[in-house]
Known about the structure:
Layout: H1 2-17, H2 20-27, H3 29-46, H4 48-51, H5 92-128, H6 130-144, H7 148-163, H8 165-170, H9 172-183, H10 185-199, H11 203-210, H12 215-223, H13 228-251, H14 263-271, H15 280-307
Amino acid sequence: MTAIVEEQTVSNWQRFRQSHFWHSFCIDKVAQISFLVFVAYVIAALLAPLMAPFDPYDPGSIDIMNSELPPSWQEEGDATFWLGTDAQGRDLWSTILYGTRVSLMIGICAVMLQAFLGICIGLVAGYVGGKVDSLLMRLADVQLSFSTMMVAIIVLAVFQATFGTQLYQELAMVMLILVIGIAEWPQYARTVRASVLAEKEKEYVDAARVMGLRAPRIMFRHILPNTLSPILVISTVQVANAIISEAALSFLGLGMPVSQPSLGSLISSGFEYIFSGSWWITVIPGLVLIVLVLVMNLLGDWLRDVLNPKLYKG
């Protein structure tokens, strides 16, 4: 039995290595570098407690006398803090590691929520059709008429004004995931609906109906797997968009609190010091955010080209 499982595993791996997907990845240097950089970000975020020399959440490890120390390569820098410190005296390298973890968590969880809502609504709209389709798509059109930032600013500002700043800071991550996730579901719904309209007329769907399978099983077990390619492409780009949205909201004071740093809140907290000479507090987290968003967009472009044969030029 074990030998059979091992043989199947080897066979699957061989098929994957012979696939168009793997071949295109091996010949695309930009995709390889982007993937390696993204994996490095994920590993750094997951291992932040082990890699960070200081815990930015622990007030006992923070000394206000160390505030606004420049990076170690400058004359006034301290070798203990190689990227310098922020206005509170926290080690910038440690806060960036923890901030990257928070930003990635918000981005990935928000996109998972977007995908769940959008896929369910898109499947129902495309498969059922008729008045249900019209109602759901008009709802999506109304949602798309409002920008994500506008909806997020209004909802988060009202919540903060109604329930107080302290409660908002405790629930900041959950609120950001909910607002960003709910505001962007139409992107998935419209894409999935278009794919379902094309798939539901094919013979395998008719065969499933003849066998007496119920509509939910046909939608999720048979049609959905054939619509995953555009969903993967959208998800890659949407994670980057969600991270940017979180950073923008944090910059406006509606994101993560200073006590739980994200990349956006780090940029925001150091912005008022940039003209006084403490440029590293804002610039370094900003560069980290730019590189993260860039590699995710590059991976999204590569996936779009590979999964769409009409666009692939390899």
